[in-house]
Design goal:
The chain contains eight helices and seven strands, in the order H-E-H-E-E-H-E-H-E-H-E-E-H-H-H. The protein is an alpha/beta fold and 192 residues long.
Length: 192
């Protein structure tokens, strides 16, 4: 609080962060989602959805003490492994390895317990991978069911079946999100 009182302006990444600062009676807060993805991580010709190895990818830290909510998502995805090619992996310190996994995945799950928009949609979009998103902030930047797939615990299976059952629809979403991320979220352009 002492630091915030010394500043003229604080920039928060999302609504959750802005609200948290305002709870401390900080009133000089503006919201701007500054995250982007560097041009070198964009694939020049995304692999077609039908040609990708994995149906669903989820990378996360696995800890029942720190991230209980993520364990529930892992269990849900594991229950789909008889029907779909599911890849659940821990976060790798090797970003290039993560990008390679995205390039070979149709869908990627992004879960942020505060509802803020994760930068993962940009990582995925730059590879033409469609994001299954649990957060709500994303609606302010991307169009639901056109550029990403909104999911909750009770709609996950229905949404996955709907989109993995229609590769044309999923390919259209892939093309849309790739184009948008390329035009609006390249890191240097975003920063400027």
């Amino acid at each position: 609080k002492a630091c915030t009182e010394l500043t003229d302006l604080l920039i928060a990444f999302g609504e959750y962060e802005k609200e948290a600062l305002q709870l401390m009676a900080v009133n000089n807060v503006e919201k701007f989602y500054s995250v982007g993805i560097m041009e070198k991580y964009f694939v020049h010709h995304p692999k077609k959805i039908k040609d990708r190895k994995y149906d669903i990818l989820y990378t996360t830290g696995i800890s029942d003490t720190e991230k209980l909510d993520r364990s529930r998502w892992i269990l849900k995805l594991c229950s789909l492994s008889d029907k779909y090619q599911v890849n659940i992996d821990e976060h790798s310190p090797n970003f290039d390895g993560y990008i390679d996994l995205l390039r070979d995945s149709k869908l990627v799950l992004s879960h942020h317990r505060y509802g803020s928009m994760s930068g993962r949609i940009l990582d995925a979009g730059a590879q033409g991978t469609v994001t299954l998103e649990t957060g709500t902030e994303i609606e302010k930047h991307f169009v639901p069911n056109k550029e990403y797939i909104p999911v909750h615990e009770d709609t996950l299976f229905e949404q996955i079946d709907k989109y993995l059952g229609n590769h044309e629809l999923l390919q259209d979403m892939s093309d849309r999100v790739y184009s948008k991320v390329l035009k609006e979220y390249e890191a240097k352009k975003r920063f400027v």
